Amino acid sequence: MEHSVVIQAERIAGDFLLEQVKTSYQITGKGITNQVCVVETESHKVVVRMNDKDTFPSFIKEKWCIEQAAAVGVPGPEVLSIGIVDETAYMIQVFIEGDNGLDSTVPKSDVWRKLGEYAKLIHSIQVKGYGGNLIDPVHGEFQSPSHAGSDGSWQGYVQYNINSLTEHDRLIELGIITQMESQRVRKLFENLKSEPFRFGLNHGDISLKNTIVNQANQVILLDWNAEVSVVPHATVVQLMHYQILGLEESASVEEFKAFMDGYGIREKDLSEMRHLLLLRAFDNLRWAIDQSPDLIESYAAFAKQVVDMIMD
Questions:
Q1: Would you place residue 132 in the very low, low, confident or very high pLDDT band (cuts 50, 70, 90)?
Q2: How would you class 83 by CB atoms within 10 Å of its CB: exposed for 0-12, middle for 13-18, buried for 19 or more?
């Protein structure tokens, strides 16, 4: 398989650059959803990311995000081209020399502080709507697909999770919450509904693994999985999520604090963010119950950890 992936990347890059390919290789690693290859010609070195053609909208979205972010001062890889060829969606980016943030000799807290600054800049980008689908790049409008019980709006998302807190709730049966706790959670979620949140663009996967630190110690941000949601909450919730899962790329206590400093978020703002973490944990678990039973166990364990963190 690997061989044919590289050959396809060579063809895509060669056709775009109109140059003979000198060397190429595939990059494999944890958490890579696309097939990624590096292709080098006489005068260019590029990264070719490929996936099946249905994922093309995510490349359109990522290109848009990288360009918007660059305009507000967040460095990213220059996107040379996106397209579809033979059932394959692709994106060609300029290769960035440097070390992955996980391997860089720059202190990790310094990188995290910079990511806090970047997150604040990203949240200043003009967007409309709510959700993960970019439906209008000209106006930066996003949308969330609706599902049974929710119209795809933020209010609908919160209300769906309030309505799901019944006495016959699977979450009670699974031992995630008691009947009493369900009442408390309902109040927390009701409060979120009336909160005058600000909505903004979120990178979706802020972590050291998605950075390159170059020769000049500049931090370059990669690999967007963007959505428009509550800011800064959604970004902080994603960091908390990784910490609770104990992922190796998650921020330590000190690194998390550096991120918060870089952004300018105070300790006292965190309790509301934890309530949003709970909302997200419950929503993901309900999705697993409906759509993906094999994930119920891990999502339930996560939700239980969040409940324990908030309820004590």
A1: very high
A2: middle
CATH code, 39: 3.30.200.20
Q: Are residues 142 and 209 in the same domain?
A: yes
Contact 161, 283 (CB under 8 A): yes
**pLDDT for 99:** 96
| CA–CA gap between residue 142 and residue 125 (Å, rounded) | 13
pLDDT by residue (tens digit) across 19-49?
999 999 999 875 667 899 999 999 999 999 9
Pairing of strands 227-231, 128-129: unpaired
Separation CA 269–CA 190 (nearest Å): 18
**What are the tens digits of pLDDT across the range 108-125?**
999 999 999 999 999 999
Shared domain for 126 and 57, answered yes or no, is no
Domain boundary among 46, 77, 95: 95
Count structural domains, the chain. Answer: 2
| Rounded mean pLDDT, 278-301 | 95
Q: Which domain holds residue 187?
A: 100-311
pLDDT, position 2 = 63
Q: How far is CA 94 from the centre of its chain?
A: 22
Residues contacting residue 15 through CB under 8 Å, at least 6 positions apart: 85
Q: What residues form DSSP beta bridges with 52?
A: 88
Q: How many CB atoms lie within 10 A of CB 39?
A: 26
Please determine, for residue 281, whether its predicted confidence score (pLDDT) is greater than 90: yes
- The verdict on pTM exceeding 0.85 is yes
Phi/psi of residue 245, nearest 5 degrees: -70, -15
